[in-house]
Amino acid sequence: AAGLLTMPTRQAADYYAGGRAMQRLWLTATELGLGLQPMTALSYLFARVNDSAADELEPETNHRLRELWPRWAQLFALSGSEAEVLTFRLTTAPAPSARSGRCAVREVLRVE
User: Longest C-alpha distance within the chain, in Å?
Assistant: First the structure.
């Protein structure tokens, strides 16, 4: 199955809340024995086109994305005003054979 997590607006707070919701979604999928695969490219590119940042893209890329947008919007019932946080794929999957290494928070976060 494919899914798209959205938030009501494109404000920074909505993207932050959307990231938290994505984490809860991913953890719930894992608890249910489902695999979740993030698929970000189209969501991020459509966000650029819809937020008037399309001039940063190659003209051909911009043109193709504008052609694809109506089908994408229909597939996920989008109005164009919401924030597309993350597209993902859900699948049945065996348990992981290895766990990702984790760094201590103090090694990766700097607060100034």
Answer: 45
